[in-house]
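Internal tracking record. Fields below are filled automatically when a chain is submitted to the structure queue. Please do not edit lines marked as system-generated. If the sequence contains nonstandard residues, flag them in the REMARKS field before resubmitting.
Queue: standard
Priority: normal
Entity type: single polypeptide chain
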Amino acid sequence: MKVTNSTVAARWANGMPATNHKGTFSTDGRNLWSYALLIGTTDGNGRKILRDYTASAGHFRSMTTSTKHVAPARGCCDIMINPSMIKD
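SYSTEM-GENERATED OUTPUT FOLLOWS
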């Protein structure tokens, strides 16, 4: 079942899988993706960590990623970090 972007973010927060109507924003309940870009994950303590892929954080990728994927996930994460803090 395809859901809204807000629902994808909420389901990530609750550890449940979801995909939006276009298939561009998804979660397996643990990780959160904007297209193929990992924007959120869950740490060993169950905390939801969101990577701030926005212009204000200096890591702009696209308008869709910033405004339609990162934005609704802000209210669902426990920690928001600058992507430069992550070693992939």
